[in-house]
Design a protein that fits this description.
Layout: H1 2-15, H2 19-36, H3 45-56, H4 61-72, E1 80-87, E2 93-100, H5 103-116, E3 120-121, E4 131-140, H6 144-153, E5 158-164, E6 167-172, H7 177-186, E7 194-201, H8 209-223, E8 228-233
Antiparallel strand pairs: 1-2, 1-3, 2-8, 4-6, 4-7, 5-6
Keywords: Cytoplasm, DNA-binding, Transcription, Transcription regulation
GO cellular component, one term: cytosol
GO molecular function: DNA binding
Length: 238
């Protein structure tokens, strides 16, 4: 799973260069998570997870607090969480997660991005079966073997614990996200490079140079859409 970590690391670095867009997308995701449940992250695990993800992207505290305060208000603004699936060059598989208050607009924009950049949108379930929903954490200052033993001792089912450079990467069941993070923090992990729930491809695809250029254009076009929150794919950039 190391190559997937590299892809996510590169994606984070690219997003951090467009701070205002990242803040806006997290602001919306935080608002929806707080609106759908308790606006208290200590009791709303979904909100807690979004806050932790936001921190890894250096989203300022005032952005987080403002989104939660907005959710406490009387706004009747509603958003739908929708997933689109499709294909890029050479059959590359892509999953697009969105938050939208206008389903027709979002569907049209996602379809247009696929069609204009060498891809095509598929039906629901077209590619998702080839991905595993996975809780993923990356951090420094620990030994992988010790972390593996620690998590086992706490009855957490671990898919993998790997080392990439100075980083330890933990892959776990998505429903154990909060439990894994709580155990790691109790063991002294103060900062996470990654704290995500990712759709990880079961098999990665290598593209030719020309197809890779086209694929990156497609991903950039999708990422530019206001309603798109996360994009998952099976392409290796190594």
């Amino acid at each position: 799973m190391g190559r997937k970590w590299a892809n996510i690391k590169d994606k984070k670095a690219a997003k951090e260069q467009t701070t205002s867009k990242v803040n806006a997308k997290f602001g919306l995701e935080l608002y929806v998570a707080a609106k759908q449940g308790d606006p208290d992250p200590s009791t709303n695990r979904k909100l807690h997870a979004v806050i932790e993800r936001a921190k890894t992207y250096n989203v300022p505290k005032h952005i987080i607090d403002r989104a939660i305060e907005k959710a406490k208000g009387s706004s009747d603004e509603t958003y739908a969480e929708l997933r689109y699936e499709g294909f890029g060059p050479s059959g590359a598989m892509i999953i697009v997660d969105t938050l939208t208050n206008n389903v027709n607009r979002t569907a049209a924009e996602v379809r247009s991005a696929f069609n204009k950049n060498g891809g095509n949108m598929g039906v629901s379930g077209a590619v998702a079966y080839m991905f595993d929903n996975t809780a993923m954490f990356a951090f420094e200052g620990k030994e992988a073997d010790a972390i593996f033993e620690l998590l086992l001792e706490n009855d957490i089912e671990i898919r993998d614990v790997a080392t990439e450079g100075s980083q330890v990467i933990v892959y776990a069941e998505p429903e154990d996200f909060h439990k894994v993070q709580t155990v790691l923090k109790a063991d002294g992990v103060e900062e996470f490079t990654v704290a995500e729930t990712e759709m990880i491809a079961q098999n990665e695809l290598s593209l030719s140079a020309d197809d890779l250029v086209m694929f990156e254009k497609l991903i950039d076009a999708l990422d530019e859409l206001e309603d798109v929150q996360k994009i998952h794919h099976n392409v290796s950039f190594e």
